[in-house]
Every structure is written in C-alpha cells, then in structure tokens.
Amino acid sequence: MSVESLGQSYKLVPIRVEPAQLLLDPNNPRIAIDLNADHRFTSAEIQKSDVQTYIRNALGKKSNRVADLIRGMQIAGFTYGGGKIVVQKIGTNDKYLVLEGNRRTVAVQHILASAKLSSIVHASLKTLDVEQFIFLPQAGHTEAEAIEHLMRPHMDGNLPWAALNRAEYIHTAYMQKLLKKFGASKFRYDLDCANQVAAIFNCTPHKVRKDLIIVRIYQQLRNEEYGVDPEHYTLIDMLVSDRVVAPKYFGLDADRYKLTNEGLAKFNKTCIHRPRPINNPGDFRKFAKIVKSGNETLIGLVERGHALDQVSQLLSYVDAESAFLDQLNRILMLLVDLRVDQFKRTASEKSVIRSIKAVVDNKLSRLL
After folding, report:
1. Partners of residue 130 on adjacent β-strands
2. Same domain, 166 and 125
3. Which end of the chain is more exposed for a tag (fewer CB within 10 A), N or C?
4. How many H helices and E strands in the chain?
5. Is position 115 within any domain?
C-alpha cells in the first residue's frame, strides 16, 4: 500500500467549538514525553478532569513556551498565525480530542479561567475555528496511520518538536506497524516495518532503528526512576552511535535494543546523577576514549568522581608510555629476528654494529 494514498485516508472538516469542548491528548508523543506515565490513555481516561489537569500542568514546562502564548493572547487575542487546531470527536458527548494544537488550547483555557479580558480578546477566545479529523477507512490504512500522516508536517512547525519527541513518535508509528503485521505489539526489529515508517517520516531505516533504540533506553531509565529527561537525548544518541562503548561499557543488547541493569546504573552514574562526569557531547567523547583504552583503573577513577579532564590527562601519559614500549618491542623483535649467521665481517657491517652499540649505551643503558 503506497504512502501517497495516506492522504486519502482522512479528511478535515472546518467546525467551530468552544474551548471547554476541547480535551488535551496525553497520547500525543510531544506531550507523552512530559508525562509521568508509560501507557496509552483510553478514551474514558482522557475525559476525566483529573487527567486533563495533569496534562495541563505537564504542558506548563518552560520548554513548551505556553507562557509566551498566554502573554500574546492576553494582548492580541487568539490568532490563527500559529497554525491550525485539528480535533477528533471523542466519546458520545460533545467533546473533541486535540490532535494538533495542544499548546494553544492550554493557553486559551488558562486565560479564560484566570484573567479579566477585554471584550475583543474574550470574543476571539470564546469560540475557535478548528478542523475536525474524519477517518476514511476505505483507503485501506488504519486510523493510527492516518493520524501519523496528518501530524507529520506539524513536527517542523513554529516550535519544532524536540529530538526525543520525534523519536517517540517514530517509535509509536513503528509499534503500530508491528501490531498490524504480526497481530501483537511485542517488540522486535522488522526491516519491512522500519522501511514503512521511514517512508512516512521521510528518513532512512537506519534513523528509524536508531530512534527505536534511543526510546527503549529512555523508557528503561524512566522505569528505573533514574531521573532521566528529554535533555539526555543527545547523550543516549551518542551511546547508541558508538559501536564499541555501547556494548562494552553500557551493555547494549543488539537484539533487544536495551541496556543491561548494570549498564543502566552506569549511565545514571556517569550521565544523570550529580555530580556526573559527563555533561555534554565533548565529555562523552573523552569518556569513550578512556573506555576504549581498556584501562580499568582510569575508568574506575571516572566512576568514583574524579574530574574527567584529569583522567584524560592521565590517559595521555599512559598512551605516551605505551608508544615508547611499542617502539622498544619493535626494536627487540628486529634484533631477535636478526640472522647473525649471515654476518660476513665486512667493514660496513662492523661500523653499523658499533653505531647500534653506541646508541644503546647512550640512550638506553642510562635508563636502567
């Protein structure tokens, strides 16, 4: 089934709604990352007032910049320059789930509940022009696939999705493909499903695979309550990208796309829990070099809280010593392999032997 036909699997119908009719969507990947939950909310759960309050508070994080929207709307009212609000009918009452535009919906609801407004601003917020998503099953796609296609362009909107939000959405889409193909949602890597998701999100199967691993590690860290947050995406990404450090130090399982329990604890100790030695990509590269050296003493120093720069300096000394030792070993092997039975006692040969002896006496004997 072609990706192009996804556009025929739904239609958008203009309608007018009151903000009180709109329900925030906790299953939206952009929001799900901010929530302290790892399950998909049912239609009944979404409509509960305590769930809506929970989502509203989660969206209040500074990174979502809802406060900026609130300030702007209090002055100028609701404008449609920020993009469309797309909704879907939910339940049997007159409620609509917000598929796209959750931040703007939160801002509107907050202003109406807490502020005295001018008549002009109030009029712009009282009812909103939105577009209702209506699924068309005859196109042959699932509703989840249709919604994925609808939301894909919004990932690069006025406030682009963070990298982890994008990865979470790709993971969600991939799990839907698995469910459709195998009838079960147990994780496995399937290249055909990865290719389908890559086509939808205009990326490579390699990118899909990488994001799957990142999200699964992020979920592991959250389940273990290690204090991970979306800002750790870059370090998890670097972990996954390093084919030596990932399995050797963090215990990445190439089949299950998960870290060992010991690997999770190591990531927490080095990248999350303060005082952590790794705070940015540059730190990670330094630590990766130490891990790849195989020097357990230096790795242990980092784990016990010694400054990363100091340990890196120690590694440079060890490398310098190793380089000298390597040179000595090469000279030794040449001497061992020297065929003295081929010595012809020529003046030239004796001259070179005397030179070698002089170098040994001058450079090496004094080191002993």
Report:
1. 15
2. no
3. C
4. 17, 5
5. yes
Instruction: Decide: helix, strand or coil at residue 12.
Output: strand
Residue at token pair 């502020």: 115
Report CA-CA distances (Å) from 134 to 10, 17, 80, 143, 318. 5, 16, 21, 9, 66
Give residue 279's pLDDT.
92
Q: Return d(Cα 217, Cα 327) in angstroms, integer.
A: 43
Residues 139 and 219 in one domain: no
249 by Cβ neighbours in 10 Å (0-12 / 13-18 / 19+) ranks as buried
In the numeric block, the tokens 């450079």 are attached to 363
Instruction: Return the percent helix, strand and coil in the chain, to nearest 5.
Output: 65, 10, 30
Whether the bond into 275 is cis, omega within 30 of 0: yes
Give dist(CA 221, CA 229) in Å, integer.
Answer: 9
Do 89 and 175 lie in one domain? The reply is: no
CA 272 to the chain's CA centroid: 15
Query: What's the confidence (pLDDT) of residue 304?
Result: 85
Output the pTM of the full model.
Answer: 0.64
Token pair of 259, please? 């870290």
Tokens of 366: 């004094």
SS3 assignment, position 16: strand
Place of tokens 């769930």: 51
CA distance 200 to 325: 55
**Structural domain count of the chain:** 2
In this structure, the answer to whether residues 38 and 84 fall within a common structural domain is yes
Q: What are the 10-residue block averages of pLDDT along the chain, 368 residues in total?
A: 72 92 87 66 91 86 79 80 83 90 90 81 88 86 82 62 83 89 89 90 90 95 90 93 95 94 96 92 94 90 88 83 71 80 90 90 82
Residue 70 and residue 112 in one domain: yes
Report the C-alpha gap between 81 and 90 in whole angstroms: 26
The residue type at 57: N
- CB count, 10 Å around CB of 24? 23
Burial (CB count within 10 angstroms: exposed 0-12, middle 13-18, buried 19+), residue 87? buried
Say yes or no: 4 and 113 in one domain: yes
Shared domain for 93 and 184, answered yes or no, is no
By residue range, what is the domain housing residue 262? Answer: 162-273
CA distance 246 to 231: 19
Q: Which residues contact 64 (CB under 8 A, 6 or more apart)?
A: 34, 103, 159
